Structures are given as structure tokens and as C-alpha cells.
Inverse folding.
């Protein structure tokens, strides 16, 4: 029988949250940073990997284009059984990298992929589910 994963992560047995950072993102009109071939998104990804704990590092992945280009830099947290969480408008810096790693943990602790706005670090201006959470009752409206 399935049970919660170690560390409070919910979902199917063996399922852990992953963080996918868009490596093709540009940021505030910058095509590259410093090196001619270093896109801001790639720089953010590299910072996330560098600053990750060992248990997080294996769950950080590159993704090519989240098609949210006007709001870059972008990343998405994903886990089987949960709505993906899109995080946008981040700078390619250490504060954003640390914030993404904190969100990877917060997302993993959530039951459905929802992280309260008050728990989203300031370095992530916008975090929203890619798929709205399912309603439990019939005819629920807000």
C-alpha cells in the first residue's frame, strides 16, 4: 500500500518533486550574460544546481522553453499527482536560485502542488499552478 514519502512529500511511492528551469530564457531584453552563449535562463539553472543540497541536485533539470518568454526567467515544479507550479519573472541571480530551492521543498510538502502566496519567497514575483486545482464539490464557485 502506498504511503507518504520520507520528508512529508506526498504522492505515489517513489515520486519526488522535480524542478525544471528553462535554460533558453532571456531576462529584461538580455540575450546573453557575460559569455556570448550563456543565456540568463542557463545561468539561473547553473546557480540552482550549484546551490542545491545533494538530495535536491538530482531533481533539478533543464527544460528548453516554457513558452513564457515575456516573463522570464521561468521554472516549473512538478510531481506525479500534483498540479505543476509555474514560477516566473525571476532574475538570474543567487536570490532566485535559493528561492527556487525553497519552493522545491515547499511544493514537495504540499498535498496538491499549491503553495500559499505568503510562503513564496520575494525573489519569485509570480508563482501559479499551470492547471487549476480540482474542485471537490459540484457547482463550487468563488
Amino acid at each position: 500500500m502506498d504511503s507518504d514519502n520520507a520528508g512529508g512529500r506526498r504522492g505515489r511511492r517513489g515520486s519526488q518533486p522535480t524542478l525544471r528551469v528553462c535554460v533558453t530564457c532571456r531576462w529584461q531584453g538580455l540575450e546573453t550574460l557575460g559569455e556570448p552563449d550563456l543565456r540568463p535562463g542557463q545561468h539561473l539553472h547553473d546557480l540552482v544546481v550549484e546551490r542545491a543540497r545533494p538530495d535536491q541536485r538530482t531533481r533539478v533539470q533543464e527544460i528548453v522553453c516554457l513558452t513564457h518568454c515575456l516573463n522570464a526567467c521561468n521554472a516549473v515544479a512538478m510531481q506525479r499527482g500534483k498540479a505543476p507550479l509555474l514560477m516566473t519573472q525571476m532574475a538570474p541571480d543567487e536570490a532566485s536560485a535559493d528561492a527556487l530551492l525553497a519552493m522545491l521543498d515547499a511544493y514537495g510538502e504540499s498535498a496538491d502542488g499549491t503553495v500559499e502566496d505568503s510562503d513564496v519567497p520575494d525573489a519569485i514575483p509570480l508563482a501559479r499552478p499551470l492547471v487549476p486545482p480540482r474542485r471537490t464539490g459540484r457547482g463550487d464557485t468563488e
